[in-house]
Structure of THUM3 protein:
Amino acid sequence: RSPSAGLRQWPGMAETEAAGDGQEPAPCEEDSALAAVIGATVPTGFELTAAEEVQEKLGSASRISRDRGKIYFEVPAGSLPQVHRLRSVDNLFVVVQEFKDYQFKASKEDALKDLEDLVKKLPWTSPLKVWELNNSLKKKKSKRKKPNMQSAASREKLQDEGEEEGSDPKGTSREEDSSQNSASVELTSDQDTGETKAAEAQNGEEEEEEDPEQSDTKDELQEGSGSKAKAGEAQPSEAGTKVLKFRVTCNRAGDKHSFTSNEAARDFGGAVQEHFQWKADMTDFDVEVLLNIHNNEVVVGIALTEESLHRRNITHFGPTTLRSTLAYGMLRLCDPQPTDIIVDPMCGTGAIPIEGATEWPICYHIAGDNNPQAVKRAANNICSLLKKQESKESSTAPGIPLDIIQWDICNLPLRTGCVDIIVSDMPFGKRIGSKKKNWDLYPACLMEMGRICVPGTGRAVLLTQDKKCFAKALSRMGHIWRKGQTVWVNVGGLHAAVYLLRRTWERAEERRSFW
């Protein structure tokens, strides 16, 4: 029989595929009423913040995964547009099935065979309907970067002409292991970002959130699936039936497994290919199947985002650009109120104030930095955001309540006691500055922040990886700052902390030597 004859069709696809027009079927109203269990990756440490946002905006209770950096919640499939507008989540996927206590066999062969057999038992129909509906929503919103449904001839033409515009940057850094690698599967280093460290280095971003214990998922691997590659040669039949392209991404944590993440992805991907008769493609894929393994917890899902949602604001990157989702978590921690004046005295490329001005337009935001290049990047990011707003509005966009200034953090041009909230990503002393300089910088910053902050009600949320230096500086500034809460986070693989400080009623002293 022809390879495409084995393509399993879920409801809603049969009629269109039989017609052979190569178009994605329009979702029916029943699909919008489907209950979908959504998984979301979030900045580690801010799981509770994300759960609060889901409850507030979607009215759904969330469950925080034992695997840090993930939450799960149930919503009607028709609520997917609102789900994509969440500010605290990085990537989204629909859960096919979750196993809270999966018993892996002791031997590698048996354990991998069980994963292969699992594919046939999973309830794929409803999750694939949700994936289909999600794709139709993305097409309505904007022109797809990687069209999901197009003719095989168009695909081949694009491949011949090179990488298409807006395609996944991962494709530029990967090559197939061999000419028979048609069923290749891929392991990404961390599902929070879904991006390679190579791409991250290009943008100079501190983006990738990684738990130290998840050491197995830090390297990008790619291998063929051996004998299972035969089914991957499926091509559209004479009738024009569309064969979807897919890849499997495995994220594994735990030291009691007899197999590697790559082996699990390879064998699971081979079984997926055999089950659906899809064609494997690591860079120009339609469906990304996720296999998340955390000790004995196994979650199978289908990705709903092509790239992380934290990339929404920044177009001009610096050496330490903060993720927008982490910036949102920091801002939410200080609970902004209407008419609050919020300052980021070390704004870098402006991730925090731009996120603040977007989500809390009823506050006034001031950003500044001593580096002229950083101020220029922040100004360019603000301009890009304004252009994006204007393109969405038929009339002139109202603008955003944000100003950017070049200044000296230790001598701010602001009146004493005029600022309600300070939110900032302080220098870690790695890519910018040094640990040695931080011993002078941190106490001077805390003193100047204390001077401009409103006594009694003012608060500050500060992110740093130089925890020892910060703790020492804070102990010397105890008369003007009180530590309220600490959130432990991972920033680019670095173990960092977000400190919530509250301003005391005591008047700030003049600047002096603290050490």
Remarks:
- The CA atoms of residues 213 and 253 lie 7 Å apart.
- The chain is about 30% helix and 20% strand.
- Residues 1-27, 143-239, 511-515 have pLDDT under 50 and may be disordered.
- Residues 324-503 form a domain with the Rossmann fold fold (CATH 3.40.50.150).
